[in-house]
Amino acid sequence: MPSELQNLVRRGHVYARRGEYARAIEAFAGAIDIDPTDAELYFHRGNALAASGQHADAVADFTQAVEIRSDYAEAYHNRATAHVESGELDAALADYTRAIDLAPDDPDPVNGRAAVYSRQKNFDAAFADYEAALKLAPDTFRSYFNRGNAHSALGRHEDAVADYSQAIRVNPRHARAYLYRALSLDALDQTGEAVADLSTALRLNPTSSEAFWQRARVWSKRGEHEKAISDFTWLLKLDPKHADALNLRGVEYAELKDHVKAVADFTRAIALDPEDAAPRFNRGLSHARTKNLPAAVEDFTEVIRLAPEDPAAFVQRGYAFYEQHELERALADFTQAVALNPESGRAHFGRALVHRRKGDLSAAAADAAAVIERNPKSDAAFNLRASIRYQLGDFAAALADHLAAVEIDPDDPATLNHVAWVRATCPRDDLRDGSAALRDALRACELTNNEAPGYVDTLAAAYAELGRFEDAVKWQQKAVELAPEGSKADYETRLTLYRDGKPYRDGVEVPAAEPKPDVP
Question: Which of 60, 74, 136, 501 is deepest in the core (most CB within 10 A)?
Fold first, then answer.
C-alpha cells in the first residue's frame, strides 16, 4: 500500500509540474483515499486546485490540512493566497498573520500580508511589512515589485521606479516589472524611458496585449501617431474584439486627418459595444471635421441619450447646428451645456458665436467675457470679444482685446492680422498706426507664406495707410488672385481705391439701440 501511495503522490507532482492540474487533483485524491490523515496530501491537492482556479475547493483542502496539523505554516500561507484570489481579504490577512507567527523567518507570508494591506489601502502597515520582508531576504524580487506597486498606487512614482529597478536587478527577465516601471516613468513624463521599458517588456513577452496597449498610449502622448497605430494594430491582432483599441486607433487616424479609417474604426468599436458613448462621440467629431454635419448631429444625439449629463456632446452638437445655420437649436444646446457645466469655456464660446450671428451683440460679448474669465489665456476668446466690440463701435476696446491676444501668442498669424487690420483701417484716426500695421501684417503673411488672401489684403491696407499706394496695389492684386470667387468683388473694390491713391476705411454699422456690453 505505501508504494501505491508514493506512486500516486509522485504522479500528482509530475502532472502538476506539467500543468495537467485535473490529473494532479485526481492523483492526490487517490492518495487521500489511501491515507486521509496525511495533511500534506490535502496541501498538495489544495495547490493543484488553486492552480486550476478552484479557489473555494483549495481553501477547503488547506483547511483540512491545518486541522490535521495546526502548526502547518505553509498551508496557512497558501490558504491565505486562495482567500486573496476569492476576494476574502480579511480572511487572508488572518491566515498570513498565523503563518508569520508559525514561521517568523519566512519572508513569503510577510510579503503576502503586505500585498493585502496594500489592497486594503492600509499603506503604512504594508510598507512596514515590505521593510520587514526585505530584512529577512534582502534580494527578494516580490518585495521590491509589490512595494513598487504600493508606491505607484499612492502616486509616488519616483519611489516606484526605484523599487521596480531593484526588482529588475534581481530578475532582469520579468516582463511585468518593465511594464509597471514604464507606467511610473510615463506618469513622470519620462516618455522616452517608458517606451524603452515597454519595448523590453514586449521583447520578453511578445504577446503581451497590455504592453502593446500602454506603448501605443505613450506613442500617442508623444504625438507619434503612426507608431501608436502600429501598436494598436498589433494589439488587435492579438485581441480582435478589443473595442477600446479600435476606438483609440480611430483617434490616431483622426489626428492624421485620415477620417475614413477613423470612422471605420469607430464604427467597429460601436458594433462591439453599442452602449459605449466614447467611440460614437469620436465618430461624431470625425463627421463634423469632414463636414458630414447630419451624421455628426446623429452621433452626438445618440451620445446625449447614452450620457445625458455629459456637456461635451451638447457642445459638439451645438457647433454642428451652428455650422448648419440652425441657430435656435445651437443656442439650446450651448445653453444646456452651460447649465450642466457653468465653467465650460467651449460652451460659452459657442453660445457667443450664435449670439453674434443672431445679432445679439451684448449677449455675445457677455459670453466671450465668460470664456476669458474662465480661461484668461484664451487668445481665441479675446479675439472673439474684440470682433464683437468692433461691431459695437468700441474700437479702442477691440484693439485692446486683440493686443491681449498677441500677448498670449505673439506668433499667431490670425491675431496679428486682426491687429494690423484695425490699425490700418479703423474709422478712428487716433487708433490707426500704419507702421505698426505694416509690421504685424508682414509677420502674418510671412507665417502663412503669403498664401492667405485675407492677410495679403490686410498687408495692402497697411501700405495704403502709409501712403505707399504702389505697394498697396501690388499686394491687393495678389489678394484678388488668391481670393475665392465669392470674395473677389470686395477685394477689387479696395484695389480701385488704392489705384486712386486712397486708403481704405472700414465701414462698421454700429447698432444704434444696442447698449455697450458690461464686460470686465
Answer: 74
